[in-house]
Write a structure and sequence with these properties.
Blueprint lengths: L2 E2 L53 H8 L14 H22 L5 H12 L1 H10 L2 H4 L2 E2 L6 H22 L2 H12 L3 H7 L13 H11 L6 E8 L4 E9 L2 E8 L2 H13 L3 H5 L5
Antiparallel strand pairs: 1-2, 3-4, 4-5
Helix pairs in contact: 1-6, 2-3, 2-6, 2-7, 4-6, 6-7, 9-10
Length: 280
């Protein structure tokens, strides 16, 4: 059976120049799907400069692009199983990213925010941005509606994410997803009514962490910060580093507020964490 939108990239999977600028115009200009909401939730923004996609095992590439309607002796395995695997790891990655980037969120808020990012609508937007909708091999008789193309883009992209984990590691997947999530995270939080700058519950967290580490004779942390956002909407993200590893992360309108949030996160760790740290 003939396939629609059949195109293969040799070697590594490549990024497209920018969102929607694919050299293949088989389906013509596409419309970015809106988030399933009451109309008040801003869809996560797509980075203007897409992060590079990690390479995957050549043996998995045909699965990434094969729809179940178009299996053949050359491409006998469709992307369904690999997409399910990728979806599970994507959910875990987004959960971890939100946990470390937004320590002020409670479990219900984390779930609400995570659901925006792992929704089929949003994953389809990521897939379209990278041109996965142009790569999927589907049977000619299938109706190429915008809704179906979104399904193909989401399924193929999730399959690719699964292939990343199998080819390298969950860490590589999370690094990619983090670059897709964090640029627009503040806007999505704002649209959901989740305050990015909640009051720090313990303004003495920095001093308390320093006192505890000193009392136990442990190494003291260092803090690394980064300013995120544009001229009008920005915040500082601060990472707490102990023994060369990131152990906490906080955000705030000032560096000191970000430090407090990061330190507070570390203070919640169990006693065995502190006992495992090297002595000063």
């Amino acid at each position: 059976m003939r396939a629609v939108a059949l195109r293969r990239n040799s070697g590594h999977i490549k990024t497209v120049p920018a969102f929607g600028q694919s050299p293949n115009s088989r389906f013509g200009p596409f419309n970015v799907p809106s988030m399933p909401s009451s109309g008040t939730i801003a869809p996560p923004s797509i980075p203007s400069q897409l992060p590079e996609l990690p390479s995957v095992d050549d043996k998995l590439k045909s699965q990434i692009y094969t729809h179940s309607s178009n299996i053949s002796t050359r491409d006998p395995v469709p992307y369904n199983r690999l997409a399910m695997f990728g979806d599970a790891h994507l959910t875990a990655a987004v959960t971890h990213i939100l946990f470390t980037h937004s320590p002020s969120l409670d479990p219900g808020e984390m779930t609400e925010l995570r659901n925006v990012y792992v929704s089929n609508v949003n994953v389809a937007r990521w897939g379209r941005a990278y041109g996965f909708d142009k790569e999927v091999n589907v049977a000619k008789h299938l109706v190429m509606s915008s809704e179906n193309i979104d399904r193909f883009a989401a399924g193929s992209f999730e399959a690719y994410l699964g292939a990343v984990v199998l080819s390298s590691s969950q860490k590589d997947l999370e690094e990619l997803v983090e670059k897709l999530v964090t640029p627009g995270l503040k806007d999505v939080r704002k649209s959901l009514g989740l305050n990015n700058n909640k009051t720090v519950s313990d303004k003495n967290a920095l001093q308390k962490l320093h006192q505890r580490l000193t009392a136990e004779g442990k190494v003291l942390p260092e803090y690394k910060h980064e300013r995120i956002g544009d001229v009008t909407e920005w915040f500082f993200e601060v990472r707490c580093i102990l023994d060369g590893k990131e152990v906490g992360r906080g955000q705030g309108r000032s560096i000191i507020e970000g430090k407090r949030r990061a330190a507070e996160q570390v203070l919640y760790k169990p006693a065995r964490f502190f006992s495992s740290l090297p002595d000063s």
